[in-house]
Hints:
By secondary structure, this protein is of the alpha+beta class.
Amino acid sequence: MRTVRVAQTFEASVPEAERRWYDTSHWADWVDGLDRVLEVDGDWPNVGASVTWESGPAGRGQVTERVVDRHPLTGQTLEVQDDSIRGRQSVTFTAAAPGVEIALSLEYELKRRSIITPIVDALFIKRAMAVSMGLTVSRFGAGLHARHR
């Protein structure tokens, strides 16, 4: 499995950041590529619950995220799957000056593999995922900052 990780620090408290992160009604504002949330199933954001969302036309298609671990005020781990990948995505909330560090990581594997997959992954896919995750965390932080003011 390949791993991508991004982290940024924002002026807000851990509880504020966690509350906003888990609020699926605002995901379209900050999750890169997300067009709309299709379904929230179970006691989101707790273990066993899932969210299914859809990207825009050039995106990932339908994405399902199922909670496999959660520690309040610390973070959450999801099993993530779409047409191209399967993996585990984790978010952590850590108190850090001047407020909270949000770290997002994704361990993934490509569903369709060929002899050139490792090269394509290293040169294009992993980089694209890092950019997308960075945009997600940045947009999240911008919204968090606006609400915090």
